[in-house]
Amino acid sequence: MRATHLCFIISALLLSLLRVRASTLELAKGFAATPDSSISSFQSFLVDPNGNFSFGFLRIQQSQLALAVLHAASSEPIWVANTSTTQWADSTTLIFNGSLILSNSKTGTHWSTRSEGDRLVLRNNSNLQIQKFEEGDTGPSIPWQSFDSPSNTLIENQNFTANMSLVNGAFSMKLGGNFIGLYTNFINQNQIYWKHTAMEAKASIIQGEGPIYARISPNGFLGTYQNEKAPVDVLPFNTFQRPTSGISLIRLESDGNLKSYYWNGSAWILDFTAITEDCELPNFCGQFAVCTPGNGCECLNNKTEYHRPGDCARHESQQGSIKSCTGHSIIRKTGVELPYKELMEFEKMGSLSECESDCERNCSCRGAVYNNGSGYCYRLEYEIGTLVGVGDEEKIGYFKVVGGEGRWEEGTGVCCWCGVGCGGWSCRGWDWCVWGVEGVEEEDEKREDGDGG
Ligand SMILES: *[C@@H]1O[C@H](CO)[C@@H](O)[C@H](O)[C@H]1NC(C)=O
Ligand SMILES: *[C@@H]1O[C@H](CO)[C@@H](O)[C@H](O)[C@H]1NC(C)=O
Ligand SMILES: *[C@@H]1O[C@H](CO)[C@@H](O)[C@H](O)[C@H]1NC(C)=O
Ligand SMILES: *[C@@H]1O[C@H](CO)[C@@H](O)[C@H](O)[C@H]1NC(C)=O
Ligand SMILES: *[C@@H]1O[C@H](CO)[C@@H](O)[C@H](O)[C@H]1NC(C)=O
Ligand SMILES: *[C@@H]1O[C@H](CO)[C@@H](O)[C@H](O)[C@H]1NC(C)=O
Ligand SMILES: *[C@@H]1O[C@H](CO)[C@@H](O)[C@H](O)[C@H]1NC(C)=O
Ligand SMILES: *[C@@H]1O[C@H](CO)[C@@H](O)[C@H](O)[C@H]1NC(C)=O
Ligand SMILES: *[C@@H]1O[C@H](CO)[C@@H](O)[C@H](O)[C@H]1NC(C)=O
Ligand SMILES: *[C@@H]1O[C@H](CO)[C@@H](O)[C@H](O)[C@H]1NC(C)=O
């Protein structure tokens, strides 16, 4: 009696598993789902034919919800829908009616593919596709696919084109005319901090022949192409020309680094690192900080103790006027340089004071770094991220900070209140100051989020 009972339960369980499994290879029009509060991490709706990848609701930090494609064995997100993360609430629904739509009955539509398709499938390369069938067609057309809107990850064989970007927080990766660039957004100002220019060894980039695109090859490199004939560049990974059995991906990390990994069957193995020295990252210690190789982080002002990124900026933005560009203080620091100075424009100037006063006069200049040896003056139009500490006392930084106390000399900026008798650029300066402080707070929040997860 007991055994029969158990047998019944087991077969019912198997049946339901099979049903789930069978129904998760594709989703048809009419599909609708809500978050299941009994699932603590990932609620799968769809798997790929090999069972390597899975698409569903990903729960982040108890209360937040994202729509993601995961690598099943490692639970690593490969793709995340570009929606501000949603609260994990019963009122959230995901529907497929030709478009995949994430909405909330209270707050409306959060995200939509705005497509007209017939079914949703997850391909064996992790590509989430909406397919449409028309009579007479040999295969389905693809009104939408996740490969066209990557998040922070590019997986093997996925094309990365000139109109795409990988994004992680304030960092992004984009293609230029003949290079791959990493950029950081320092409060609405993009600064390139890593650049890999195509070598054009096997093929040259020909003007007018279309934009370049990049793709990870199973042979252990990130190839850049203008057409399929030959790569215009090969960026080798450690496993270059030594094919691994597992899949490779490249990811823009939360610290702005670009890393490649391959799956060895049980772990993701690091295969390439764009920036090998932490201090060379654009914002490793947060804003208004100095990173000295082998010696860690410290704040630009000598008073704030550094514990974690954001500490130095918090002090700088606490006091003082944020509504005008007057009332700032100046911090000077010797033995510092910009981590990405090779990628920055500069102007040659005769002396440190010339470089400084040029910045002092100009409200949109937030700081300058001068090299007394070469005479190069690098101007910053944004609040400084992290500088690199160098032994060379000839490299001197000059930074305007909002806040600070007595010991620092008062700035004499010429900017004034928006609309009060200034040129057009000062209005920009005003906006900029407000943005600056908000940006710092946002950055802090992001860091906190990051630390928590
Ligand atoms: C995908 O699945 C196959 C077999 O099911 C396995 O050999 C392969 O390593 C998996 N790939 C990844 C990326 O997990
Ligand atoms: C995500 O969406 C925002 C706002 O619509 C857009 O500005 C941003 O570029 C998008 N990010 C990516 C990676 O497409
Ligand atoms: C899908 O649903 C959305 C929102 O309810 C609606 O705006 C859209 O027209 C629907 N699309 C189709 C093809 O029915
Ligand atoms: C993935 O799917 C394609 C066609 O959709 C097929 O040609 C290929 O062999 C599949 N790869 C694996 C590893 O299953
Ligand atoms: C990548 O682009 C090439 C050339 O346009 C194309 O042949 C290939 O099918 C694309 N791959 C994917 C996964 O879309
Ligand atoms: C992006 O560029 C590719 C070719 O590089 C093109 O096929 C595609 O339509 C473009 N997508 C958008 C949204 O512009
Ligand atoms: C994969 O890498 C991990 C971590 O380095 C290691 O412990 C494991 O043995 C490797 N697995 C295989 C199949 O090589
Ligand atoms: C910080 O201290 C060093 C010596 O310890 C000094 O040379 C430097 O001027 C100080 N910087 C500031 C901004 O007070
Ligand atoms: C201020 O600096 C910015 C950028 O360095 C420059 O574009 C602008 O022309 C300068 N304005 C004045 C008034 O010098
Ligand atoms: C800069 O260089 C000049 C001459 O090369 C020298 O006189 C001056 O002391 C140097 N200043 C600093 C701050 O190193």
What does this structure look like?
The protein is α+β, with helices and mostly antiparallel strands and 453 residues long. The chain has three domains: 24-149, Agglutinin, subunit A, CATH 2.90.10; 163-276; 279-447, Hepatocyte Growth Factor, CATH 3.50.4.10. It contains four helices and 33 strands. It has helices spanning 2-23, 311-316, 352-361, 424-452; strands at residues 26-28, 31-33, 42-47, 53-60, 64-71, 76-80, 86-87, 92-96, 100-104, 108-112, 119-122, 128-132, 141-145, 153-155, 166-168, 171-175, 179-185, 190-197, 213-217, 221-225, 231-236, 248-252, 258-263, 268-273, 289-292, 296-299, 328-334, 336-337, 347-348, 367-371, 376-380, 386-389, 395-402. The strands form eight sheets. Strands 3, 4, 5, 6 and 7 form a five-stranded antiparallel sheet that branches. It has a five-stranded antiparallel sheet with strand order 27-33-30-31-29, with helices on one face. A hairpin with a 3-residue loop joins strand 16 (171-175) and strand 17. The chain is globular, with a radius of gyration of 26 Å. One 2-acetamido-2-deoxy-beta-D-glucopyranose is lined by residues 147, 157-159, 228. The site of one 2-acetamido-2-deoxy-beta-D-glucopyranose has 7 residues, from loops. Residues 1-22 form the signal peptide. This is Apple domain-containing protein. Involved in sporophytic self-incompatibility system (the inability of flowering plants to achieve self-fertilization). It comes from Stephania cephalantha.
